[in-house]
Amino acid sequence: MDRPRFSRAFMNPRYWPLWLGFGLLWLVVQLPYRLLLLLGRGLGELMYRFARSRRHIARRNLQLCFPEMNENERERLLRANFASTGIAFFEMAMSWWWPKSRLQRLAHIEGLEHLQQAQAEGQGVILMALHFTTLEIGAALLSQRHTIDGMYREHKNPVFDFVQRRGRERHNLDASAIEREDVRAMLKVLRAGRAIWYAPDQDYGRKQSLFVPWFGINAATVTATTKFARLGRARVVPYTQERLADGSGYRLVIHPPLADFPGESEEADCRRINDWVEDAVRQHPEQYLWAHRRFKTRPEGEPSLYRKRPKKPVSL
Hints:
seven-stranded mixed sheet, alpha/beta, globular, 45% helix, Kdo2-lipid IVA acyltransferase activity
């Protein structure tokens, strides 16, 4: 995919409010890091109070995944999760606009040798991540140290898409953005011995998925990880990240490659992946993206696990 280019059409008056919003956000993220953490928690509290639909989804997910907790414990975890989501808003802007040297001071990276070894051997890597709220800044910090290609879905708003892609790609000019549906391009990148960020932990529907347990509940789990590893002749290297509680930055861990992967079957691989994802989430549940309807797709005959969204009134 070509690099994002500025277009004169972006200066159309209908985009002025968005440009103004970006300008104000740029000014805010020049503040000290610890103050941004505080502002993020405040934003998260507002989201908790007013984002009712997302709050319901996250609360329901916590009920399903942590039945051993009592209601008060889950509610505290829910509020902490919204605080983390609020911080992520400013982390996104930091990753787009902070000077690289300022960002790098927050990075604590472990296991980089696993990516370096694969690169030296010309071996493609599926960097198997998951949807933590620190996703954006974690990718930026790692991209400063190693070339990582990424799966990409174009934003509907062309100005937002331009700013987002430019912010993401500035950390490594050798990186490429690959359309999420472009399987051929992804396999080409892997066979060329490159590393690509990929997260298999969301519900993408019944097609290309198997139902295997996650937190004890059958969840639609994509089989693409197995297919990409086999067809791309690539290693699967787990990757986790966390926002450190002491405010010193972020711990990024590149784990050793999965041994004997792909395994005996796609179902066995999906189970293995879900077990790994569950273990990673349990370590930092407050930083996971619980507002996603992870159990949206159900096996045939099973009812929905989420409250139905009210239908919008029809205007006459």
